[in-house]
Write a structure and sequence with these properties.
Family (chain A): Belongs to the phosphatase 2A regulatory subunit B family.
Number of helices of chain A: 5
Low-confidence stretches of chain B: none
Low-confidence stretches of chain A: 1-8, 67-81, 158-178, 435-462
Organism (chain A): Brassica campestris
Shape of chain B: flat
Number of domains of chain A: 1
Oligomer: heterodimer
Helix content of chain A: under 10%
Structural class of chain A: mainly beta
Strand content of chain A: 35-45%
GO molecular function (chain A): protein phosphatase regulator activity
Largest interface: A-B, 58 and 62 residues
Mean pLDDT of chain A: 83
Number of helices of chain B: 36
Keywords (chain A): Repeat, WD repeat
Protein name (chain A): Serine/threonine-protein phosphatase 2A 55 kDa regulatory subunit B
Chain lengths: 495, 586
């Protein structure tokens, strides 16, 4: 990306296994609810969150920076090899529960679609999580466990059941007693010495996740994205046809800023697949569509941003049109680079990098699934063609990565002239199979793919195993470290 | 565990419940913190209760919010102003929580306490607190700090003042947009406490920085500061420093910023004086009225009258009126609606001739608008025009508009127009009303929607008040009495409702001679709902009619009802009987 690339840009990275959470033992069946459905690093890279189909959010925290108590110098002198990010389990909480929409007779899954971190405050962590319909704002904080050691009234010796509580209506109190609570009762000048304040002991703490706000009932369709603004007070949520703008503090109203719903639903040709705020400019956001276009909009221009500022689209190659053209053009994910200059997009076959100053075409295009082109028909039949792979950009913007089938993911060099292209497997030995993907002999696909295969792990050895798809991954914001989800396991790699 | 004397029991429980697991009980205790403080005495409040509360800042937001509020008025309970400083630590920790409403309340309370503190205490404890918060690690503390400077600054030494100004300047350039927003919001307040020499030099530099902020959300708060600062500056400084900023803002790339300008512009006109208003602000305002974003036009249109009040009629006619004409046929219904809600106010400003020539066509076209809100807004302000040009010129168009609204298929629209009928009646006069609107009023009593029937009944009462009982006797009462015989029980019920509302206005005589026989008749209805409404109605008639009537007619009727087979009828009849007895005793 950046022309005068740093030295690390030149040589391809050597990826090493770092950690795995929730590793599957041989033959273990994956529970549907445990499958990871969202991964996100926070801005500092000290925390990582995953969401799963069971509506849980699991938080991990970085261990290698926290313990670095000494001076910076000490840290720099430490052995280089151990200086890659290491994480440990921090806490988890149930973010969403399955619900039922009685008005529409619709079941609402608890599956977490997206997680986004918000600004931390006072040592507490904040994040947004969403399922198909409802966004929630969570605060995760160390809380002291209270233990009250001294009280005025011994609860065990309290006057039976008719304990007069000041919160009960005054007429229930014994005669005259309530005078103590009236405004004009005068206490002795020195106060009443026998009264004492409860003493709180035990300074033990525990992590508590509390739901601070619920942003509900604003989406008629399924929410596919949420994204925070750089202004620190607003965020957007996008469903198939609309993008809404929220203030973090106000959960009962949102503003519709993009609406692509046609007056007649039969005219519908295109849906929104993903949306993201610009990382620096709070007025800019981008959204992608099922037709393979990315629209950049400027919220300064008008309140309802139905007209885009810029449109990024690759002109269709003449003569190549087929039944699958539109399906595989659909963009499943977009990400801004950290500096906001580039947008990375993932469609079924490729990864594309766009310069937001150049709308004539992508600056680079990386083949991810080109070898699957002959099999599109099978992929269509077993619905794999609709899989939504995510993509990510490295913190320095020099590399991009995305997932694939058979628990593989690919990393490409994004700087000018880089030919770096690595294929790695989400396992303890990522480079076990350096597959030359296109050269792989293709066996009869239909024999291997049974729709709704009862055991996802059964065909682990196969290079084109469509049940083991690596959909979700995230790149550490400051270091070359990748977190990716293979079913219920979270694998971390570094270089 | 200590045991407490029985009389002290409630207060002891109150104290214990400060740490109860049930948030409702904790809240209850916190809200009676002053009682607890008085029970403990001033000294122990200072030494025990306040430190105890300082430890409490990880409680639930509701509790913290209540605590922040209570502490603001706590000075008497800690021993007066000389001990006020002990209240600062708990509030300081509340200033750092991330929940905005708690922080704002804590800042409020700190400002209250700070403004009562002795100057020496202010310097010794309040100013250091502000400095600590401003240097806080988390943005929440720095946001809170911004709201405290105007209290801290007064009574400081020159050295400290210089320091505070420079800290505020840093906050204006903070990395976090939330902090810059807080700095922008509070800049005007801080500026009022500053010496005028610094105002021009330092505050205006901070202001300039904020107006150039890359975040829209910061810039639009800076707009709000413009008016406040403009009023503090000398007129020539205001023209030199604030005016260019405003003119710039009115052409800002972001519609949200322009929207703020449209809302604030008329206030600035006062600050810069008539000359600059004419040369700079009128063109800016005209641009906003023609903005391509509907939201901006809505804001601008809503301020048309206020803006014209500041101009002379000539300028208004020359520059503003052409825009108003365009807005009256704007593509956005909300723009037209905003215009309709204020445009009648322009009539007194322009005077009779100009109103007839320029405004009347606009009124008439808005009265025919397809969007009911627009029409309603015009009708609601009718009195303002009536005073200038009289109603006759409008009445031709008014009537169809009213009739159409009265029959609108949205009941909320019908409800809105009913609310205005008494106003219309008073403006249009008896004659016009009788001819055209009388029938409508009866029609509403039989509407399909209860709220409309209810409002219709209330409307009759207000009309009776407006035109007097004699008129009502002629035009309203016969129809209402007739309705009591309606085959539909809901309509019969509404007639009773109308009677109960009108009776106090019509007076004792008419009530006894006209209403009461009908009501007594209704007590023999076959529908229990009618019967218990009769009971309720009779209860409401008791104070209006003579005691003899009560004894003669009402009591007997109620006694009959109290033996009704229906339980609800018996209940309400007994209620009414009780109130007769109660009145008799009194």
């Amino acid at each position: 990306m950046n022309g005068a690339a740093a030295s690390s840009a030149g040589s391809p990275l050597e990826w090493r296994f770092s950690q795995v959470f929730g590793e599957r033992t041989a033959g273990e069946e994956v529970q549907e609810v445990d499958i990871i459905s969202a991964i996100e690093f926070d801005k500092s890279g000290d925390h990582l969150a995953t969401g799963d189909r069971g509506g849980r959010v699991v938080l991990f925290e970085r261990t290698d920076t926290k313990d670095r108590g000494g001076s910076r110098r000490d840290a720099e002198q430490m052995d280089y090899a151990v200086k890659h990010p290491e994480f440990r389990y921090k806490t988890e909480f149930q973010s969403h529960e399955p619900e039922f929409d009685y008005l529409k007779s619709l079941e609402i899954e608890e599956k977490i679609n997206k997680i986004r971190w918000c600004q931390p405050a006072n040592g507490a962590l904040f994040l947004l999580s969403t399922n198909d319909k409802t966004i929630k704002y969570w605060k995760v904080q160390e809380k002291k466990i209270k233990k009250i050691s001294e009280m005025n009234i011994d609860p065990s010796k309290a006057f039976g059941d008719n304990r007069p509580s000041p919160s009960s209506p005054p007429q229930l109190l014994a005669n005259g007693v309530h005078d103590y609570l009236s405004k004009d009762f005068s206490f002795p000048p020195g106060g009443i010495p026998s009264l004492r304040l409860p003493m709180v002991t035990s300074q033990e703490t525990s992590l508590v996740a509390r739901c601070r706000r619920v942003y509900a009932h604003a989406h008629d369709y399924h929410i596919n994205s949420i994204s925070n603004s750089s202004d620190g007070e607003t965020f957007i949520s996008a469903d198939d046809l609309r993008v809404n703008l929220w203030n973090l503090e106000i959960s009962n109203q949102s503003f519709n800023i993009v609406d692509v719903k046609p007056t007649n639903m039969e005219d519908l040709t295109e849906v929104i697949t993903s949306a993201e705020f610009h990382p620096i400019h709070c007025n800019m956001l981008a959204y992608s569509s099922s037709k393979g276009s990315i629209r950049l909009i400027d919220m300064r221009q008008s309140a309802l941003c139905d007209s885009h500022t810029k449109l990024f689209e690759e002109p269709e190659a003449p003569g190549s049109r087929s039944f699958f053209t539109e399906i595989i053009a659909s963009i499943s994910d977009i990400k801004f680079s950290r500096d906001g200059r580039y947008i990375l997009s993932r469609d079924y076959m490729t990864l594309k990098l766009w310069d937001i100053n150049m709308d004539s075409g992508p600056v680079a295009s990386y083949q991810v699934h080109e070898h699957l082109r002959p099999k599109l028909c099978d992929l269509y039949e077993n619905d794999s063609i609709f899989d939504k792979f995510e993509c990510c950009v490295s913190g320095d913007g020099l590399r991009v990565a995305t997932g694939s089938y058979s628990n593989l993911f690919r990393v490409f060099g994004a700087s000018k002239g880089s030919t770096e292209a690595a294929t790695l497997e989400a396992s303890k030995n990522p480079t076990r199979r350096q597959i030359q993907t296109p050269a792989r002999p293709s066996r009869s696909m239909t024999s291997m793919i049974r729709r709704g295969s009862e055991s996802p792990g059964a065909e682990n050895g196969n290079a084109n195993d469509f049940t083991n798809k690596l959909l979700h991954m995230a790149w550490h914001p400051t270091e070359n470290s990748i977190a990716c989800a293979a079913a219920n396991s979270l694998y971390m790699y570094y270089a | 565990m200590a045991m407490v004397d029985e009389p002290l029991y409630p207060i002891a429980v109150l104290i214990d419940e400060l740490k109860n697991d049930d948030i409702q009980l904790r809240l209850n205790s916190i809200r009676r913190l002053s009682t607890i403080a008085r029970a403990l005495g001033e000294e122990r409040t200072r030494k025990e209760l306040i430190p105890f509360l300082s430890e409490n800042s990880d409680d639930d937001d509701e509790v913290l919010l209540a605590m922040a509020g209570e502490l603001g008025v706590f000075i008497p309970f800690v021993g007066g102003v000389e001990h006020a400083h002990v209240l600062l630590p708990p509030l300081e920790s509340l200033c750092t929580v991330e929940e905005t409403c708690v922080r704002e309340k804590a800042v409020d309370s700190l400002c209250k306490i700070g403004s009562e503190m002795r100057e020496s205490d202010l310097v010794d404890s309040f100013v250091p607190l502000v400095k600590r918060l401003a240097a806080g690690e988390w943005f929440a503390a720095r946001v809170s700090a911004c709201g405290l400077f105007h209290v801290a600054y007064q009574g400081c030494t020159d050295v400290l003042k210089t320091e505070l100004r420079s800290i505020y300047n840093q906050l204006c350039q903070d990395d976090m947009p939330m902090v810059r927003r807080a700095a922008a919001t509070n800049l005007g307040k801080f500026a009022t406490t500053l010496e005028s020499s610094y105002l021009n030099a330092e505050i205006m530099t901070m202001f300039d920085d904020l107006t150039k902020d890359e975040q829209d959300s910061v810039r639009l708060l800076a707009v709000e500061g413009c008016a406040a600062l403009g009023k503090l500056l000398e007129p020539q400084d205001c023209v030199a420093r604030v005016l260019p900023v405003i003119v710039n803002f009115s052409q800002d790339k972001s519609w949200r910023v322009r929207y703020m300008v449209a809302n604030q512009l008329y206030e600035l006109c006062e600050a810069v004086g008539p000359d600059c208003t004419k040369t700079d602000l009128v063109p800016a305002y005209v641009r906003l009225l023609q903005d391509n974003e509907a939201e901006v036009r809505i804001a601008a249109a809503g301020k048309v009258t206020k803006f014209c009040q500041l101009l002379n009629p000539e300028l208004s006619i020359q520059h503003i009126l052409p825009c108003v004409k365009d807005l009256s046929s704007d593509s956005s219904q909300h723009v037209r609606s905003a215009l309709a809600s204020v445009i009648m106010g322009m009539a007194p400003i322009l005077g009779k001739d100009s109103t007839i020539e320029h405004l009347l066509p606009i009124f008439l076209s808005l009265l025919k608008d397809e969007f009911p809100d627009v029409r309603l807004n015009i009708i609601s302000k009718l009195d303002q025009v009536n005073q200038v040009i009289g109603i006759d010129r409008l009445s031709q168009s008014l009537l169809p508009a009213i009739v159409e609204l009265a029959e609108d298929r949205h009941w909320r629209v019908r409800l809105a127009i009913i609310e205005y009928v008494p106003l219309l009646a008073s403006q249009l006069g008896i004659g016009f009303f009788d001819d055209k609107l009388g029938a409508l009023c009866m029609q509403w009593l039989q509407d399909k929607v209860y709220s409309i029937r209810e409002a219709g009944a209330n409307n009759l009462k207000r009309l009776a008040e407006e035109f007097g009982s004699e008129w009502a006797m002629q035009h309203l009462v016969p129809q209402v009495l007739e309705m009591v015989n309606n085959p539909h029980y809901l309509h019969r019920m509404m007639a009773l409702r109308a009677i109960s509302l009108m009776a106090p206005v019509m007076g004792s005589e008419i009530t006894c001679s006209k209403f009461l026989p009908v009501v007594v008749e209704a007590s023999k209805d076959i529908v229990p709902n009618i019967k218990f409404n009769v009971a309720k109605l009779m209860q409401s008639l008791i104070p209006i009619v003579d005691q003899s009537v009560v004894d003669k007619t009402i009591r007997q009727c109620l006694v009959d009802l109290s033996e009704d087979p229906d339980v609800d009828v018996r209940y309400f009849a007994n209620q009414a009987l009780q109130s007769i007895n109660g009145a008799a005793v009194a």
